[in-house]
Amino acid sequence: MGLFNKWFSKEKKEVLDQGLEKTKRSVFEKISHAIVGKSKVDDEVLDNLEEALISSDVGLDTTVRIIERIERRVERDKYVGTNELFKILKEEIAALLAETETNGFVSFSDQLPTKPYVILVVGVNGVGKTTTIGKLAYQFKNAGKKVYLGAADTFRAAAVDQLCIWGERVGVHVVKQAMGADPAAVAYDTLASAQANDADVVIIDTAGRLHNKVNLMNELSKISKVLGRLSNTAPDEVLLVLDGSTGQNAYEQAKQFSKVTNITSLAVTKLDGTAKGGVVIGISDQFKIPVKYIGLGEGMTDLQPFDKFEFVESLLPDTLKD
After folding, report:
1. What is the pLDDT of residue 87?
2. Residue ranges, the chain, pLDDT below 70
C-alpha cells in the first residue's frame, strides 16, 4: 500500500470519489489516449502524458516536474510498461504534494493549537468564500467546538446578510456592525467577544474585492494588526478560498493574493462540478501553500480536510486495467 494506507472513513472516501468523478474521468481518458497502442514508456508517451496533464489544469511547471520524476523512474528501472504508468504517476504526484508542508490540525475534531483559533478568510467574490465559512463553522461546531463568525466584509450588504444566514443555519454567533463600518473594528470586536465567551474558533470574513492591491493589502494588514492586540498569534491562519472550476484563473488569484498578504492555507471549492480538479496539484506545488480544504458538493459535510494521498488515490487508478 505504501503511501496510500492512511485511515480514511468510508463516508468521506465516497464523497471524495463522487466529487472528483468528472476530473477523474477526464484525466483517465486523456492519459489513456496518450499511451494507447504503446507497450513501453518512451519519449512519445511522455510527451503525450505531458500534454494530457497540462490540459487537465495541472499547470506547465508542475507538469514538467512530474514528467522529470517519471523519466528518472524509467531510467532507473530500465523497462517500464505503459500499464505501470498510472501507478508511477500516482506515486510521483503524491510525493510532489508531500513536499508542501501541512500546517496545524488535519481534522475538525483535533485539538487546536491556540484558543480561540483565529482564521482570516480571503478571496475574490464568487468563489464560495462565505459558503466555505459557513461549512467550516458547521464542521467545527459538529466536532464540539464553540464558533464565532465575524462579518468584516462591510462593503457589501449581501455579504453580511449571507454570513448571518449561515450563522442562523449552523447555530453560531455572528458579530457584525453597520454597513461601511471599519472591517478591522469588526474583526477586533469578534475576537474580543469570542475571548470573553470562551470560544474555540473565530472565522472572519473579509472583502472579496477592493479598489486596488494597495487598498487590499492595507485592509488585510490593518485587520491582522488589530487582531494582534488581543492575541499574540492571531490571525493563526490566513485561508485563501479559490474556485477550482476556474482552472488557470485560480492560479492567478493565488498569485495576486500571495503578493498582498501572507497566505498560510488554501481551500479549493466547487471541485464536484468541474473536470479541472488537477488545479489542486498545480496550486499546491507552485505556491508551496498547503491545500487544507476541498469543496466537493453542496452539503454541509462536503467540505473536507484535504488528504493529499487519498486525493491522488481517488483521482488515478493503479493501472489501465483498473
Report:
1. 82
2. 1-9, 78-80, 102-106, 210-212, 317-322
**pTM of the predicted model as reported, rounded to 2 decimal places:** 0.88
Cα R_g (the chain), whole angstroms? 21
Burial status of residue 104 (CB atoms within 10 A of its CB: 0-12, 13-18, 19 or more): middle
Distance CA 209, CA 124 (A): 6
Cell of 295: 469543496
CB neighbours of 261 closer than 8 A, spacing ≥ 6?
Answer: 122, 216, 217, 220, 221, 224, 238
Q: Of 41, 58, 28, which Cα lies nearest the Cα of 322?
A: 28
Model pLDDT for residues 281-293, shown as the tens digit of each residue: 999 888 888 899 9
Distance of CA 235 to the CA centre of its chain: 18
* Integer angstrom CA distances of residue 99 from 5, 94, 281: 18, 9, 12
